[in-house]
Amino acid sequence: MEADCQRDFLIIGITPQKPVEQEWTWITGLLRDGVVDIMHIRHPEADADEMKRIIAGVPEDLRYRLTLHDRFELAIPLGIGGIHLNRRNPQPPPDARAITPGLRISKSCHSIEEVEESAGLTYVTLSPIFDSISKEGYRALLPQEKLPSLRKRLEAAGVAVVALGGVTPDKENLLRQSGFAGMAMLGALPTPRNHCSPESVIK
Question: CA 94 to CA 203: how far, in whole Å?
Fold first, then answer.
């Protein structure tokens, strides 16, 4: 997998939709402490200045492990390692990978068919795999016992597939058995209040 993962199964964190107080401290702690390999910053309503403040608080040596869902124009000048395509931003900037050859380009998918049309990207997220923790009424694509039946299609898709939606750390073995290359968490992440290790806090 062409991503900056520290293990053979990619662990991704996703921020809440709205920025939290001193979010950069929380993000830095999750990355430094190895809770996640990559952190997705998902703030659709944040303007460029607010996004710059959040990114500026993350040490430069960790910024290649960040992925932006919006404000793609900030990625290259601020040393961000990835951009994530979605309904708001369905296309990468022109020549993005030519300018930054190692840039990760990922995408949100909500069906196996979408996954199969995404070959060539670094990875895609497929959701919801389980009933969502953070979105009420967001139900799983398949019953849990049928997840292993996805393995052949996921392995043949030509892109690494990361499970999203209701994912918790205890689901890792099931997801591996089902052919997923990683998992992404939002609701199951340690909260900003209870995960700010002393060595991670930016004074």
Answer: 38
Neighbouring residues of 162: CB distance < 8 A, sequence distance ≥ 6: 10, 12, 106, 123, 124, 125, 126, 180, 181, 182, 183, 184
CA pair distance 191, 46, nearest whole angstrom: 20
- Our separate counts of H helices and E strands in the chain read 6, 8
Asked if residues 4 and 12 have their Cβ atoms less than 8 Å apart, the reply is no
The number of beta carbons lying within 10 Å of the beta carbon of residue 194 is 7
Q: Which DSSP string do the residues of 80-124 spell out, in sequence order?
A: --EEEE-SSS-SPPTTHHHHSTT-EEEEEESSHHHHHT-TTSSEE
Per-residue pLDDT reduced to its tens digit, 17-69: 999 889 999 999 999 999 999 999 999 999 999 999 999 999 999 999 999 99
CA distances (Å), 20 to each of 16, 30, 43, 191, in order? Answer: 8, 14, 10, 10
CA–CA separation, 162 and 123 (whole Å): 7
pLDDT-based confidence at 190, cuts 50/70/90? confident
Classify 143 as helix, strand or coil: coil
Helix, strand, coil proportions of the chain in percent (round to 5)? 30, 15, 55
